[in-house]
Amino acid sequence: MKNIAALLSGGVDSSVVVHLLCEQGFRPTLFYIKIGMEGEEHMDCSAEEDIELAKVIARKYGLSLEVIDLHRQYWDNVAAYALEKIKKGQTPNPDVMCNKLIKFGCFEQQVGKDFDYTATGHYATTLEQDGKIWLGTAKDPVKDQTDFLAQIDYLQVSKLMFPIGHLMKQEVREIALNAGLPNARRKDSQGICFLGKIDYNDFVRRFLGEREGAIIEFETGKRIGTHRGYWFHTIGQRKGLGLSGGPWFVVKKDIEENIVYVSHGYGVETQYGTEFMLSDFHFITDDPWKDSERKDIAITFKIRHTPEFTKGRLLIEDGKYRVLSSGKLQGIAPGQFGVIYDEAAKLCIGSGEIG
Ligand SMILES: Nc1ncnc2c1ncn2[C@@H]1O[C@H](COP(=O)(O)OP(=O)(O)OP(=O)(O)O)[C@@H](O)[C@H]1O
């Protein structure tokens, strides 16, 4: 019998994971991970509600639940990484780092190592090909979360189970309703990470403060507004600029001078690009192209968490990874991960940082 650790968040997805595992005859041990923001009251209270719901699920299935505190590790690793990127004017992706370093990193080292498998409610799949385990996309393209998993490594992917990855969200909810789970109708969370739960601007303000600077129209060089620090703004951002007569898009930042450049209107060329470089490219399972002569590969990819997979080509030249998109891309934000899939968008191959 497989010895399974199930990560239970108190949400509907991971509760259905527990239900399905029990239906299949497994007796998983349940773990809730605490990573809240220190001293932040609404965080503590949402965590308490989550833990309560997790306890109800554990009781319902007669399973043991442990609360693991990875709060310090989260702040030392994920929050520190996010702030460092933001200071550099880049766009971090804490969800990606949280999966790599916390849910499947620290958790694995402290707890997961004693289990054969770790099960989660991520919308993703694993599949075997050429004798190896690969990360596969979810059946539900809108919910697919493989982009958040694109920095995990082979050891991690080969012991993960995603019991709901082959289901549509609607099916998951129906299972929850039929099983009478208390959270069947609960709203979807935005991720384990602080960005999903607390206000992004509050977080940034607390650690980086405020410093007024100019908002300048990129094409004309005209000052059209004031911002409170370039670190509140992201390439491609449209909302929250406080400018009238929009739409306005952030197209460039000067972090030395604390200037945010914007372009006006849809269809403005400055907000689009068709290619980008990826640094520190990471293959989850293996480099599927290592033996091919021509490193010009038809792929699909994502540059942010969207349901669409964009078609393109990956060019590997002298160890450098360049992606050419089949169409125009809005807001290519340095620091974000470019996630590479096979042409059919079935396999998540790996990712690198847009730079
Ligand atoms: N605090 C936590 N403790 C333990 N596991 C967690 C926690 N937060 C998330 N997870 C695990 O990671 C998975 C994906 O997390 P995400 O935050 O994207 O949740 P979700 O898709 O809304 O799922 P759920 O409905 O289970 O919260 C969850 O299904 C769960 O297995």
From TrEMBL:
Endoplasmic reticulum found in the keyword field: no
Record flagged with keyword ATP-binding: yes
GO terms classed as biological process: tRNA modification
Compartments, as annotated in UniProt: Cytoplasm
Pfam family, one: tRNA_Me_trans_C
Region feature Interaction with tRNA, mapped onto this chain: 143-145
Domain tRNA-specific 2-thiouridylase MnmA-like central: 201-264
Gene Ontology CC annotation, any one: cytoplasm
EC number, UniProt record: 2.8.1.13
Annotated site (Interaction with tRNA): H122, Q336
GO molecular function: ATP binding; tRNA binding; tRNA-uridine 2-sulfurtransferase activity
Catalytic residues identified in the record: C98, C193
Family: Belongs to the MnmA/TRMU family.
Record's function text: Catalyzes the 2-thiolation of uridine at the wobble position (U34) of tRNA, leading to the formation of s(2)U34.
Designated name of the protein: tRNA-specific 2-thiouridylase MnmA
Species annotation: Jilunia laotingensis
